Amino acid sequence: MNITRRQVLDDLRFLKVLARQYPTIQSASTEIINLQAILNLPKGTEHFMSDLHGEYEAFLHIMGNASGAIREKVDLLYQNTLSQAQRAALATLIYYPEQKLKEVKEETPQEELGEWYRLTLGRLVEVCRLVASKYTRSKVRKALPPDFEYIIDELLHTTYDERNKGRYYENIIATIIEIERGDAFIAALCGTIKRLVVDRLHIVGDIYDRGPRADIVMDSLMAHHCVDIQWGNHDVLWMGAAAGSRTCIANVLNNSITYNNLEVVENGYGISLRPLALFAAETYGGRDMAAFLPKGEATRGYSPKDIHRVACMHKAIAVIQFKLEGQIILRNPGFLMGERMLLHKIDRERGTVRLDGRNVPLKDTDFPTVDPADPYALSEEEARVMEQLKFSFLQSEKLQRHVRFLYAKGGLYKCFNDNLLLHGCVPLREDGSFLPFSCEGEELAGRAFLDYAEGVARQGYYAQPHSPQRQQGKDYLWYLWCGKNSPLFGRERIATFERLLCDDERTWEEPKNPYYLLYERPDICEKILREFGLGGPGSHIVNGHVPVRTKDGENPVKAGGKLIVIDGGFCQAYQPKTGIAGYTLIYNSYGLRIVSHSPFEGVKEAIRQDRDILSTTVLTQATEHRIQVGETDVGQEIRENIDGLRKLLAAYRMGLIKQDHSH
Ligand SMILES: O=P(O)(O)OC[C@H]1O[C@](O)(COP(=O)(O)O)[C@@H](O)[C@@H]1O
Ligand SMILES: [Mn+2]
């Protein structure tokens, strides 16, 4: 379509800015041709994972093997020429180049090494060429490690059997080996392969808590070339702790100590728990800590003395947590959580707590720091401990960096390629209508409420320190973690108090929001998708948060394919429930695929035995045609860029903007 003078003049300011980047007709035209070409390429591959819960070894392996996709490419290329063991060894090399190279050099006789390098480099180039084939050359070049860009680009585009280039290709490989650059090249090729196989990674919440080292998972995500994160309830809890919310800090430590997982706090983030340990020993040492022992598995290998010490810390921080939560609830009547204040309902004489009109027996009523006259006030020592812990959380450079990354690359939800990515739920009433929330005097529901909640969550970290907005934001991060009908928590209440102190398991109930019943219905899912401007045949809701009981035959796909839950128990503590070790949802140009992962035996096993995580496809939803970039959100962006460049071309040709040939 030809562009009128009017259209160019309307956009002249924007076009002058664009002209700085494309100063001539030639440069603007080249970019248009390049962008137009990309529109016809097959859609990039997206991987979705959720509920990683600190399981860094399994996660790093899954990142390395691209949820099984790399092994598929190796099998595709070499099923007729390499044995199963040789293919497994090649795949392991791609996953762990440094470690596998070390092992190969230890175990391969010197005189055979040269041949091993020649064969291996050739095969890695072929695997790289296969995974690069769906992209333009310029996109592949941008993905290459700068030091090796020229040579790898040459190797990728020089087919071995070309008569006049056969020697040329062989010479490059021979020279690499001769000047002992084989290892560096192998690492560069493996990195490129991993980078090209997954175009975009979505983490749909719950990176933190339970498993050993969420900080290592975060470091790996920060190194990923293209990742976005939809916050989970455990993530916003750590964001609140990093923002300096003492209530979030108390909850973070309660969760970590429950699993005896102090490593992520002390070693990962360099936060000393010494103040808490000393206070706990002083206040609770020698008393009965039966109700506060770390969870089963987490006590293996610890002496009774150590376990008692951790249990004292657990009780100390839990009491502080219940007090501070009472204060937040009093500060925020809009949370409608008054019935969750339980400390003043404890009857020490009878050893019970008043719950839903019943006197429920407590396992422990020994609370020396709780003043019955003012049960939610911290004692002097408790206040001092929390100030010291708050200072440590604020001072942890790595934690602050990780949380800034969660804010920059994350959000409460994400709409991408017709899918709605959301860790928890869109709170609903029983009748399927969007549950309204009072937000500073306004009733908000559905998307408007989620947008409001995300804004307040950002205030918690970015509003002026000590301002009311900052305090509101920090309180809100705690609300999103465990608040009544929070979109990231999706339950009536969190029963931490009851699960710690009451034997009566009826009190442990955490009734789910009606969303978790209604989300089996396609019409409800369609209504939710439309609320976010999505909907139609290729549109899905992707949730994490609730472990799919695969073992009991539960299907991750619900509502006739409109909704997919991908929490497959990546977290070891939940694997007995789900029977698998997590899911990855794969969305490529052929459609959707869900793979479930087998439990991971650890990196050493993987390298020594060439053991992989067996990822089996449990469901596919093929699209009737191969999806092109042009049909995706990225394609939409590219079309807008092309439109701008065509207007710029017109502006040059109409003499409305001068070309600048000086570059
Ligand atoms: O978002 P998630 O992973 O379900 O975690 C929140 C849930 O975990 C719990 O704290 C229980 O945790 P654990 O299973 O680790 O004991 C529940 O009270 C709460 O509903
Ligand atoms: Mn969750």
Automatic annotation (TrEMBL):
Coiled coil: none
Catalytic reactions of this protein: beta-D-fructose 1,6-bisphosphate + H2O = beta-D-fructose 6-phosphate + phosphate
EC number: 3.1.3.11
Example GO BP: gluconeogenesis
Swiss-Prot/TrEMBL cofactor(s): Mn(2+)
A single MF term (Gene Ontology): fructose 1,6-bisphosphate 1-phosphatase activity
SUPFAM superfamilies: Metallo-dependent phosphatases
Keyword annotations of the record: Carbohydrate metabolism, Hydrolase, Manganese
Ion transport listed as a keyword: no
Pathway: Carbohydrate biosynthesis; gluconeogenesis
Family matches, as Pfam families: FBPase_2 (PF06874)
Similarity field: Belongs to the FBPase class 3 family.
Name this protein carries in UniProt: Fructose-1,6-bisphosphatase class 3
Natural source organism: Bittarella massiliensis (ex Durand et al. 2017)
Organism classification: Bacteria, Bacillati, Bacillota, Clostridia, Eubacteriales
